[in-house]
Amino acid sequence: MSRIPLAGLVGATAALFALAISLIFFYAPNDPNQGLSQRIFYFHVPIALTAYTCFGWGAWKALLHLWRRPEGADLESYVAIHQGVIFGSLTLLTGSIWARISWGVWWVWGDDELVLFLVLFLFYCAYFMLRYSVEDGPARANMCAVYALFGVVLIPISFFAIRLSRSIIHPEVFKLSGPQMAGSQFLTFCVALVAMLFLFATLYQTELAGKRLDLKLRELRELLA
Amino acid sequence: MRYASAVVALARKDLLLELRAKETVPAMLLFVLAALTVFHFAVPTGTSQTAALGLLWVAIIFTALLGLTRAFVPEREQGLLDALLLAPCDRSAIWLAKAFSVFAFLVIAELLALPAFSLFFAGVGWATVAAALLADIGISAVGTLVGAMAVAGRARELLLPLLFLPLAIPIVVGGVGASSGTHGHYLAFLVLYDAVFCLLSWAAFEYVVSET
């Protein structure tokens, strides 16, 4: 991912978003039950999947940090989780808006996917508390990596726990037999998902570049002092 | 064999320290009684048994937090952790011994909490006792690991609940489920949680305390 130049990534993201938005509003058919409001699906679900991708990517970098100890893996893991929390907040926001329109309430405790997402969101918010209360250094990098790895174990465990205890009103769109929607809807969804993943890649590279510059500047300052 | 003797020696040290200083367990006992009393007045009379059982689990989790906050304080204050890291034994032995002493404290607290709960609210069945024991294993495993993380930070007492509570949510789900209604699934789930997180914490502890 780091070999693609940032300008190219930005251009691709912009083009994909233009395509995705025009597909969402002009190509995808109107939902017979929910009407226009169903179109938030093409934002909400890709954002949620991107948030999970961010957490997964952060955990993978954390594992690399503990295993092979490459330079900068700790920073990459942090940036990925930071982006994950941003996409996570957007998921909660878009989800609440959709829930208000579709189910009539902002939040439903009876639904396992909502509760699971909130638990994970809180978990990853605590990651920042940990990171900023421990002094910078190899000890902090190790702790943050271990905590990030706990996250990917917590995801399936909590999912299982909540599934045991609660009913589901979340629409189950993706089943083993294939997606439960029309071909045009699925195409729009896929384009929106790719656009969102590209947005993540762009933001990730931008933040990473900034952080690396910051580190370099600090090193130069120390050399001068 | 050396590993086992290291674990036994470290756990013995913790228990002996507690026996002499009596810093943690009396506080946990008082806290769990006070919490149950607060719950008794906080909920309206005639609350269903399911709701009351939820309160028991809240009390257990918060009492555990109280004990976990204290768990690594002697090590940090006396600089003992650095000395332990220099010792020629596997570092996970430190985790195992600490988790064992936390587990022991929790069991002692629950020896008071469960009878007190059945006195104040409703009787507890065997499933609740089994669930509490299984939950204690998970709490002490995960809690000891995040306790070691939190104690390295500046805001240790503040940090621990933030790190621990999201990880403890599956325990609460399993515990409440096991104490009310279909026990089998939930007890099996608690066993799964314990197995996964014990293994993970055991493997990860070395990285949490190492400085390189």
What does this structure look like?
- By secondary structure, chain A is mainly alpha-helical.
- Chain A is built from 6 helices and 2 strands.
- Chain A has one domain (39-224).
- In chain A, strands 1-2 form a two-stranded antiparallel sheet.
- The longest helix of chain A is centred in the last third of the chain and has 42 residues, at 183-224.
- The mean pLDDT of chain A is 87.
- Chain B is mainly α.
- Chain B has one domain.
- In chain B, 45% of the residues are buried.
- Classes of the chains: A mainly alpha (225), B mainly alpha (212).
- Chain A binds chain B through residues 66, 119-120, 122-123, 125-126, 129-130, 133-135, 137-140, 142-143, 145-147, 149-150, 153-154, 157-158, 160-162, 164-165, and chain B through 145-146, 149-150, 152-155, 158-159, 162-163, 165-167, 169-170, 173-174, 176-177, 185-186, 189, 192-193, 196-197, 200, 204, 207-208, 210-212.
Number of domains of chain A: 1
What share of the residues of chain B does DSSP label as strand, in percent? under 5%
Integer count of domains of chain B: 1
Structural class of chain A: mainly alpha
The rounded distance between the terminal residues' Cα atoms of chain B is 28 Å
Uncertain residue ranges of chain B: none
Amino-to-carboxy terminus distance of chain A:
36 Å
Poorly predicted runs of chain A are none
Strand content range of chain A: under 5%
Instruction: State mean pLDDT of chain B (0 to 100 scale).
Output: 88
The largest beta-sheet of chain A arranges its strands as 1-2
Q: How would a textbook summarize the main sheet of chain B?
A: none
Helix-strand pattern of chain B: HHHHHHHHH
Assembly state of the chains shown? heterodimer
Radius of gyration of chain A: 20 Å
Q: In percent, how helical is the residue content of chain A?
A: over 70%
